[in-house]
Amino acid sequence: MIDSPGKGDNFSPPMRNILVTGGAGFIGSNLTLALQEKYPDARLVIVDDFRSGDFKNLRGYRGDVVTADVSRLDWPAQFKDLAFDAIFHEASITDTTIHDQFLQTHDNVEGFRRVLEFAAPRQTPVVYASSAATYGIGSGRMSEEQAPAPANVYAFTKVQLDNLARSYAQECPTWRIVGVRYFNVYGPRETHKQAAASMIYQLYTQLKAGKRPRVFRAGEHKRDFVYVKDVVALTIKALTAPRSTVYNCGSGLPVSFNDVIAELNRNLKTNLAPDYFENPYSHFYQPHTEADMSLAKAELNHEPQFPPARGIADYVATLEASATH
User: Fold this and answer.
1) Of 7, 193, 208, 229, which is the active-site residue?
2) How many whole angstroms separate alpha carbon 84 and alpha carbon 121?
3) Which CATH topology does 191-223+254-289+312-323 take?
4) Is 39 a known active-site residue?
5) Which listed residue (39, 128, 154, 168) is catalytic?
6) Is the pTM of this model over 0.70?
7) What is the per-residue pLDDT across 137-170, written as a single tens digit (0 to 9) for each?
8) CATH number belonging to the domain at 4-183+228-250+291-304, selected among 3.40.50.720, 3.30.43.10, 3.40.50.620, 3.50.50.60
9) Of 99, 167, 204, 323, which has the maximum CB count within 10 A?
10) How many CB atoms lie within 10 A of CB 176?
11) How far apart are CA 325 and CA 323, in angstroms?
12) Annotated catalytic, 193?
């Protein structure tokens, strides 16, 4: 685990200039718009190559957009003397079924390395997206102290991000580099991801089409589904972390796919039974994810506000409202 002292508990830099990589993506766009609301006078800059982002996610955005691949961008030339007060690094290849090891590793790891090299001279605080995939295919409650056990190349790249962050933080103990280990995120602004969108969205669209929702046999695998509003809240709070470290970001309440389908049926007033099929990804599929949220609660005073039933209800209401416009 990354563990270096910072400049003092609850330190928060002034917010004049904020950079968000991957700001047109699912989590990145929700984060960007929340930052815009929280810091209305700050200058916001997004860096995104739109491979997995969508301009529609940024309706209402008032800041700048630099269209570039973070792993190939000449950062000093692009931003010259512009000093950022915070960098949120959300850019990555997020589709875990892409197995091109060079592509995944180069773009994810080298992108983060360039961000850190750009941030290092001013020790700009960096909050970056890690992943619960780093825990591998084990079951039970997952704690930040566990050794990583990546089961696919995507997870491997996220372990390398944690390693890079630890290395830079150890070299500069006063610099804050904080990872947020996202569990199974769902919510608004993910529809552009299509097949890579959350299972909650996939099951919703199947039910809306009058189809039986398809899940792996027998629907009892449990996931720590975390609503994107809770993810954004913790990601922003991570900027006030008392040290360089990594925090789990889940609901702390794993639920089965059968439970998710029941909640969706309830909110949609449908009654379609699951259609079970065999799992083709058993060699790297996580049978159970469950975030131990005690560290985020102790150090950031973070408690999720959207347990699964409330989050699903809020999401369905949002999706239904957008369908009527």
Assistant:
1) 193
2) 11
3) UDP-galactose 4-epimerase; domain 1 (3.90.25)
4) no
5) 154
6) yes
7) 877 899 999 999 998 899 999 999 999 999 999 9
8) 3.40.50.720
9) 204
10) 26
11) 6
12) yes
